[in-house]
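Re: the 139-residue chain
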Amino acid sequence: MAARTETLAQVGKREGSPWTGLWAVVAKEMADHLTSARMRILEVLIVLTAVGTVYAAIRNIRDATSNSSSFLLLKLFTTAQDPLPAFAGFLGFLIPLIAIALTFDAINAEFNRRTMSRVLAQHRVPLAVNQVEYHLLER
């Protein structure tokens, strides 16, 4: 009985930091995602949007900066032409749309690989969160 109690007590505790292997995982995920063709297409789309809005703003920059000459770079990205919104407006539309598309793609990929049940059945995430809280409260 005492041995079982000892092993149960050891299961709840973890030696070392829970963040030890996190940076290796982050580096691998970033390398996988940022070098994919999907991300390259999204980067090109955002750069083309920026170039288009800056080009439209340059055509009207004299009118936009006639009142004050400060913050010229800010005016380039926030000045809008009549049919087009400013770059900030484009990003306000594109970023949520891209996030929804990437999330849908990730969920669909898990479903097609038939690993969705494994992802949803993982019980280690709350345990890891509890361990982080435990280490933070310990200090």
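The mean pLDDT is 74.
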